[in-house]
């Protein structure tokens, strides 16, 4: 069924950087995705059921969605009119939705998933040489399911994927069912924690499966005191410094190199829990593709690396801890909008420096001095608290973000600084965060105004001197 396009404003989030992604008038509570994927022809047949709550009276609803053929759309079980225009799916239910009402949108679709083109390159569902991956940050989620594609609209998920049994499947979530039916296998994953659309990921490949027990990698055979169903199963949360179940999907040819490159990940998790508080999810999953990737991919409870990031010499170990730190900063604590991205990348960068010192490498102070010198040589034209959409992923947002935290540590002292970090992750666990909230909490732990400090480090393009340099 086809309807007229909605009025302007129904299909915008109002995000200052990416207003075309995300939609007004409702919030999604839960996504139920049922996917049937054929790797060879890259063919996806799927349905999506969104449980949403109206934040205003609605005569129509807009979703972000890619290039698929839509077979039917229902609202609360009844056929609804719809119009697919560009990257938006506009839905007009048979009956208007009252403000505060909970409603269901069901979309059945089929097609060849392809990445979304963006100013940062192609993002979203992509084919591998033999398999597939999803890299959605920041706008790639609509490449495989209809959604409200804005980081502030976090929801829970249940994802079912059926594909050829020769492929291992990893989806961001806890594996709750795996049914082998001859030539195909059905995998069911649940992500109960509030999750941004860009942090949902699907990975398929011909991988070996490994499990990390204690501080070393072992074949997935149930060795040790914990036993899990074959696959990426639900782990058990222990005490504050919990033992985090860790699994990996790795090409057989890279297995030995992987065991060395990721062999200290257990120690990393221990360090980050000491500094940032309990790990925020049930498990941590690593996927290494058999293809090269430009950069690792961040996902909720998961990180994806390319074959080029595994060499058996720990060359890219800083990336291992960087992606792990995102589980606290970016995934559990998610930016309310993209202006605040330094809260993701600056913290993950500083985690790299802390791990370097912890593991016997350069101390954080030396790395801060080195990066201060390098950033000072670059143009002073970025305010990291509001870098602009074109510079969201600028190296200076990452490194100057780390420098800001190092300078704050010097400004308020170690006891207040590390107490602040634990309070920051604890008070906002699975929530949304802004720069203004962080500044307010930092001032509370400093017991004084830090206006001048943050004006210099967050809002002034010129790089301030590094304390103690």
TrEMBL record:
EC number, UniProt record: 3.4.11.2
Binding site for Zn(2+): 322, 326, 345
GO molecular function, one term: metallopeptidase activity
Active site, renumbered: 323 (proton acceptor), 398 (proton donor)
Cofactor: Zn(2+)
Compartment list: Cytoplasm
Domain of life: Bacteria
Name of the protein in question: Aminopeptidase N
Species in which this protein is naturally found: Amycolatopsis pretoriensis
């Amino acid at each position: 069924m086809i309807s007229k396009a909605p009025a302007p404003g129904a299909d915008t989030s109002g995000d200052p950087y990416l207003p075309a992604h995300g939609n007004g008038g409702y919030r999604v509570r839960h996504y139920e995705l049922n996917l049937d994927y054929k790797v060879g022809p890259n063919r996806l047949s799927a349905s999506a059921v969104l449980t949403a709550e109206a934040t205003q009276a609605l005569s129509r609803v807009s979703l972000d969605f890619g290039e698929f053929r839509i077979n039917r759309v229902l609202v609360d079980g009844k056929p609804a009119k719809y119009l697919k225009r560009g990257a938006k799916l506009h839905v007009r239910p048979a009956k208007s939705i009252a403000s505060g009402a909970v409603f269901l949108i069901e979309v059945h679709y089929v097609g060849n998933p392809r990445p979304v083109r963006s100013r940062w390159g192609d993002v979203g569902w992509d084919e591998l040489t033999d398999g597939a991956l999803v890299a959605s940050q920041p706008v790639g989620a609509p490449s495989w399911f209809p959604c409200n594609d804005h980081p502030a609209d976090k929801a829970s998920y249940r994802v079912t994927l059926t594909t050829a049994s020769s492929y291992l499947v990893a989806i961001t979530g806890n594996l709750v069912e795996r049914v082998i039916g001859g030539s195909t296998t059905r995998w069911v994953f649940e992500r109960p924690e509030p999750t941004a659309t860009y942090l949902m990921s699907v990975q398929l490949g011909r991988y070996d499966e490994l499990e990390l027990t204690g501080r070393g990698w072992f074949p997935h055979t149930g060795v040790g005191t914990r036993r899990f169903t074959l696959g990426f199963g639900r782990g058990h949360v222990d005490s504050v410094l919990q033992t985090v179940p860790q699994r990996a999907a790795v090409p057989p040819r890279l297995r030995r190199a992987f065991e060395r490159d990721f062999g200290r990940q257990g120690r990393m998790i221990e360090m980050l829990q000491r500094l940032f508080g309990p790990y925020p999810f049930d498990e941590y999953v690593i996927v290494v593709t058999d293809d090269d990737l430009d950069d690792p991919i961040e996902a909720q409870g998961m990180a994806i690396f390319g074959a080029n990031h595994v060499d058996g010499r720990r060359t890219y170990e800083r990336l291992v801890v960087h992606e792990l730190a995102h589980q606290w900063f970016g995934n559990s604590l998610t930016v309310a909008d993209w202006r605040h991205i330094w809260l993701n990348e600056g913290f993950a960068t500083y985690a790299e420096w802390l791990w370097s010192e912890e593991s016997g490498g350069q101390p954080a102070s030396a790395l801060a001095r080195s990066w201060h010198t390098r950033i000072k040589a670059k143009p002073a034209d970025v305010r990291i608290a509001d870098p602009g959409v074109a510079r969201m992923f600028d190296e200076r947002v990452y490194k100057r973000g780390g420098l800001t935290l190092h300078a704050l540590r010097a400004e308020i002292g170690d006891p207040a600084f590390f107490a602040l970090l634990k309070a920051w992750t604890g008070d906002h666990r699975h929530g949304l965060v802004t720069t203004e909230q962080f500044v307010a909490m930092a001032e509370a732990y400093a017991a004084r105004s830090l206006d001048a400090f943050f004006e210099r480090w967050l809002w002034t393009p010129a790089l301030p001197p590094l304390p103690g340099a």
